[in-house]
Amino acid sequence: MEKVELRFLRITYSHTHAGAYALILSEVNGERRLPIIIGGVEAQAIAIQVENIKPARPLTHDLFKNVADTLGFNLKEVIINDLVEGIFHAKLVVEQNGLEVEIDARSSDAIALALRFDCPVYTYEFILSAAGLKVEENDEDKGEEEKGEGGSEKRGATLEELQEQLNEALHDEDYERASKLRDEIKRREGSN
Fold first, then answer.
1. Per-residue pLDDT reduced to its tens digit, 128-141
2. What would the mean pLDDT of 156-173 be, rounded to a whole number?
3. Exposed, middle or buried: residue 140 (CB in 10 Å: 0-12, 13-18, 19+)?
């Protein structure tokens, strides 16, 4: 089967599943998007890597990367290889000393690892045909609006208060909130 390369686009709140998030992957050479519903913890693991937030101690995916670096194996690629009853399945293609092995993984874990290893992500055409969405021009604007959600705690706060909230969020390991606060601080500092 021919593989189709994907890239990470963003994570948004899921409008169809309460308390969940949508991991949006984009076709590299096309206009389709592949939304994957993931939980909050999984979204946080991806967001801290995308936002380049360094936790005080290594999280599970960081630990896996550290073990790989220490033992000399590499994540060559991630393949979202099946869709069963609405659940995406993935595999990791791991390489060591010229030997490749495939390891079953949850799609959210596979993407979190792909981002840490900076390796390509693929799927197959039958999966994109079944679950992919074609992007309309106005859909890109919606993504920008979704990034601004959760701003009530930021309205009216000074930069110093935002920095305190950011430090508190990092201390509490609430990396999603920390990411939003950091973005707001950067936005305000850039407009000064």
1. 988 988 876 444 44
2. 74
3. exposed
CATH 3.90.79.10 for the 3-146 domain, yes or no: no
Verdict on whether the full-model pTM lies above 0.85: no
CATH 3.10.690.10 location in the chain: 3-146
pLDDT, position 155: 53
CA distances from 109 to 61, 65, 102, 183 (A): 8, 12, 14, 25
Q: What is the CA radius of gyration of the chain?
A: 18
Reduced to 3 states (helix: H, G, I; strand: E, B; else coil), residue 95 is: strand
In the sheet that 87-96 helps form, which strands lie side by side, from edge to edge? 99-106, 87-96, 74-84, 121-124, 3-13, 21-27, 32-38, 133-134
Phi, psi of 74 (to 5 degrees): -135, 145
